[in-house]
From TrEMBL:
Cellular component, GO, one term: nucleus
Domain SCAN box: 48-130
Keyword Zinc-finger: yes
Organism, as annotated: Marmota marmota marmota
Any Pfam family: SCAN
Name of protein: SCAN box domain-containing protein
């Protein structure tokens, strides 16, 4: 369990009655019911979102903005733990998901693919299932429209 808890000023610290309020985050752990730290598998997604949604107005100036972006990016991509190839894979996966229609994007994100190949496979399997369902619907609607199916009589041509 990592003991390193760092202060991450996602939003610029706000002064309130002489106090400085800083949001404190822990990269890989969250407080559980037993008040101990537990591994958070979604932390990478949280930092990705914070990196992507960060705004210049969230900082007090250009240097702080750049510093915060670097920190968020580092926490998202974890260059100390991932190879260049893995980081590229994460970036390509993110862009692939971004170009999908919203419904598909949400569905794929729920499935939690680790790389682009997994995302493509998930979508191909979904497409195959949908095509099979459509064929079954067409087959059943053709059968129900057929006079022989309704009346038990052979069709005349």
């Amino acid at each position: 369990m990592s003991e390193e808890i760092t202060a991450l000023a996602y939003h610029a610290p706000k002064e309130q009655e002489g106090l400085i309020i800083v949001k404190v985050e822990e990269e890989n752990y969250v407080w559980g019911q037993d008040f101990g730290l537990q591994r958070n598998s979604q932390s990478q997604e949280v930092f990705r979102l914070r990196f992507r949604q960060f705004s210049y107005s969230d900082s007090s100036g250009p240097r702080e903005a750049m510093s915060q972006l670097k920190e968020l990016c580092s926490r998202w991509l974890k260059p100390e733990a991932h190879s260049k190839e893995q980081i590229l894979e994460l970036l390509v996966l993110e862009q692939f998901l971004a170009i999908l229609p919203e419904e598909l994007q949400a569905w794929v994100r729920e499935q939690g693919p680790d790389n682009g190949e997994e995302a493509v496979t998930l979508l191909e399997e979904l497409e195959k299932e949908l095509n099979e369902s459509r064929q079954q619907v067409r087959s059943s609607s053709e059968v129900s429209k057929s006079p022989s199916a309704v009346f038990g009589e052979p069709m005349q041509e």
